[in-house]
Amino acid sequence: MQCTVCTRDLYADETGACRPCTDRVDRTLRAIAGPGGLYARLSASIRPGSSSGGPHVSGSRDAPAPVRLTALSLAARGGVVTILQTWLIDWHEALGYRHPRWDGDLQQQCDQVVARLRVLLPWAAEQHGAFDEFAREVGQLQRQIGAATGGERPPRRVPVACPCGHVLRVTLDTAGVKCPGCSVQYGHSEVFQLPLAERRAA
Ligand SMILES: [Zn+2]
Ligand SMILES: [Zn+2]
Which pTM was predicted? Predict the structure, then answer.
């Protein structure tokens, strides 16, 4: 049996997705929610005048920059919150549960849906047929929010050496990688057991 996300061989007590992959998804979900989370940062980034207290009056009618449009579409209904809610509806249906309910504004709904997804995460990682897709989509949301808010630098790439001599460039988020040199498939933790490749001066 292999992990549905990173394809490394599972331990005997694992089913579906491996523990590191499940933990990574859980960490990302946790990072999205809450008053200091990625979604809150995203919402704040699209109303720059809101901290002044009074109504924000702008004399300029400039079109918003593309980055702000991306942030806007991610923050609005149909964006991050809706994508997560769609997954939760799907999970509830698979479990035979009632349709989930949402209350409050989008930030509150974001916190609710993340909390609920995290409760059901162990089940989904083990049993849900599309968990790999969920894992990828959550990672994508995190990167999109990071790019839209300009708050996150791209993850640092670490060069590691495959025994075949090929250098693989991986990030801490790498779920798994296939060596293009010898076609060996590495899981997340296996790839970090490979020796670091020597950095050569450019
Ligand atoms: Zn895995
Ligand atoms: Zn190799």
Answer: 0.70
